[in-house]
Amino acid sequence: MARTQYIVVLLNGEWKISYSGKHAGPYDTQKAAIKAAVDAAHKTGQNGGDAQVLIQGEDNKFRTEWTYGHDPYPPKG
């Protein structure tokens, strides 16, 4: 099974979560979008899937923020 990726992006001035060809949001802040993405990824993991949260930086590169089974839930901070 492929890993489900929840990607936090700034799209047209709004924070959104991109996953499986869809967008969720908008969220008021990047932090709120990250929290929602981690919650969704955690739920996917609990249902037997492999899930990860990525954040798109200003340089358009992606960095891993949270991975199910590797990082604590809920995340600290």
What can you see in these coordinates?
With 77 residues, the chain is α+β, with helices and mostly antiparallel strands. The protein has one domain (4-64). Helices cover 22% and strands 42% of the residues. It contains 1 helix and 5 strands. The protein has one helix spanning 30-46; strands at 4-11, 14-19, 22-27, 51-56, 62-67. The chain has a 5-stranded mixed β-sheet with strand order 3-2-1-4-5, with helices on one face. It is globular and about 35 Å long. The termini are far apart. This is DUF2188 domain-containing protein.
Total strands: 5
- Quote the beta fraction: 35-45%
What distance lies between the first and last C-alpha atoms, to the nearest angstrom?
30 Å
Number of helices: 1
The overall number of domains is: 1
| Global shape | globular
Mean pLDDT across every amino acid position: 92
Category from helices, strands and their pairing: alpha+beta
